[in-house]
Amino acid sequence: MSRACSLFQLCQNPNRLLLRSSKFSKGPYLIPSARICPVLCLSKEIQTSAYEVVRGSYVPTALVKPESKPKDKSPENLEGVGAFQKLPMVMPSVDILYSALRKAKRISPTKGIANIAKRERNRGAKQLDALMKELAVPLRTYSENFPNKKYLHPYERSLIELTLGDGNYEEVLGKVDSLRKKVVSVGKEHASLCAKSLSKKEAEERLTEGIKKVEETFNRGGKHVDDLLHIAKTLRAMPVVDLESPTLCLVGAPNVGKSSLVRILSTGKPEVCNYPFTTRGILMGHIISNHQTFQVTDTPGLLKRCDEDRNNLEKLTLAVLSHLPTAILYVHDLSGQCGTSPSDQFVIYKEIKERFSEHLWLDVVSKCDLLQKSPVLFATDKGDDSDLELERYRKLGPDGALHVSVTNEVGLTELKSIVHEMLNSQMTRIQVQEKLEVLT
Q: NOG1 N-terminal helical domain: which residues (predicted)?
């Protein structure tokens, strides 16, 4: 009996030292090799292999979750491109609701409840809770895993603003998170009401009403989930730019032949048509030379106007030049077929050349097979012969410009050779910049 009591006391105090009487000396002594193993308590309510005693009650340590440290989201650590390819897959709102209803209806009441009313209200409360969670979890995933715009690379931040509209990205994410909170609130409210039902019939009625209310709440905000789906598809379709790989950016007025040159120089296959703003976004191709891969971007055309009046397509072009380490191939069309007069092209060219003068630069006059002996004059031209630089530009383009024709294949071989030299120089620039960043 005394041994049984000792064992029971040891169970109650597992930290107690194991002592034993020696027949060689009086008094107890410590057994050095003794090990105190976890004791499995026989009481169902307190059975746990690891626990803490708090005011006499047992609290499983598994339920006490350590606070996770917030991730460091400093711009230095998160700045980089490629965030759009990591966006979570967004399900259509109809599919989310259908899946949630189907899973919730499979929930059974807790086993062992004999009372019919208790069993029915238990089933109703569990189904409403499951429905609420099945709807809220995807919405929480979207809110947490879509990146905060302020931590994105400036180039990708510009793409969001110019493609989706300023503030639209954050607005949709905010509405999705607001929908999640409403679904959780309505779901908890009706699950609580169902759990308080006094009869089976009342529990069934409250379950039906609760499902209807949760479904109505979700449907009212389902449009925001579909808007987020559209945003994810749009951003995921954006071309991936490698900041460590040299990039050639083709710039010029609309319809001057940039897309045709991209098709000649790279693997990119942009649309080629005879109307302005054929290029409606940033198109990416690649050049493979001597086991090296270079990038080529086709950008929307620029018009003669100030930045405040530019449309989002033109601003995309300026964003590429501002935020990416690019070499510029500026395309001029002096044939009069692009729709922008040589005089206006000259003004645009001077502005862009001055703004991005630190970039490697190559001027190309396209459609040289269509050039005439006398320069093309538009009705809008003032006909001022005093500007000698403009007159020279109308005839031959900028000094040192390469004349090419895709139709007659004139100058294409020389163009490819110069482009490869530019991209190798751009690679050297990038490597030097990386070394400077490491040193600083």
A: 84-242
- Cα(124)–Cα(127) distance, integer angstroms: 5
Shared domain check, 146 and 92 = yes
Domain presence at residue 74: no
List pLDDT tens digits, range 71-101. 544 444 445 678 898 999 999 999 999 999 9
Question: What's the domain range around 134?
Answer: 79-236
Q: What phi-psi label fits residue 167: left (phi over 0), alpha (psi between -120 and 50 degrees) or beta? A: left
Cβ–Cβ < 8 Å for 393, 342: yes
Domain termination site, one of 183, 209, 236: 236
Its pTM stands at 0.72
Domain tally for the chain?
3
Q: Which residues contact 60 (CB under 8 A, 6 or more apart)?
A: 48, 50, 51
| The domain boundary residue, chosen from 236, 265, 281 | 236
| Contact residues for 384 (Cβ-Cβ < 8 A; gap 6+) | 390
69, part of any domain: no
State both tokens at 17.
Answer: 């030292």
**Is residue 71 in a domain?**
no
Name the strand (E) or helix (H) holding 283: strand 283-289
